[in-house]
Specification:
Layout lengths: L10 E7 L8 E7 L17 H14 L2 E7 L1 H7 L1 H14 L7 E5 L10 E5 L7 H22 L7 H4 L5 H10 L21
Helix pairs in contact: 1-4, 2-3
Amino acid sequence: MLKLSYSDGIEAGTDEAGRGCLAGPVTAAAVILPSNFKNTIINDSKQLSEKKRLLLQPIIEDTVSAFAVQHIFPEEIDKINILNASILAMHKSLSKLQTNPEFIIVDGNKFKPYGDINHVCIVKGDSKYLSIAAASILAKTYRDAYMEQIHEEFPMYNWKQNKGYPTKEHREAIKKYGITKYHRKSFRLLPEQLTLDF
């Protein structure tokens, strides 16, 4: 059973999706839950099927006190690196919340202070706290929807299916067709990187 909160007061949970992808943005969400929030299905997005995540997305959006989602795109990722881009996505989603949190709980072990609001990093937080789990679901569903949209432009990479992750098929397509504006140039896109011409 996931816990409702870590602290007293208005607490935001935040998480990201797409950190290990070769293409597309890294996407973060921030969520503030009401104190009477209950949901027995919400869990770490990786533990849920795509069907369940899509079912939960509108439920989360309709029942939470506040939520926001932000993408950081490949150009920025290549400039500041994926860790900084992930943290920036979380900061930007926190800044878009309609309510200011008094405390932040973050999935993982790395974060930079957000203003003067206290935070705590929780490893596997998305399987321990409801707000982080809800944020992980929103980050994943919004990012997946974006990847499905750009799939139409470059169907040969099958982003509709692999969402930009480094599958064998995705790497084969990079080898065959080269890269797009949606690929992260700072990532090791192929094992024999030297064969890629930018």
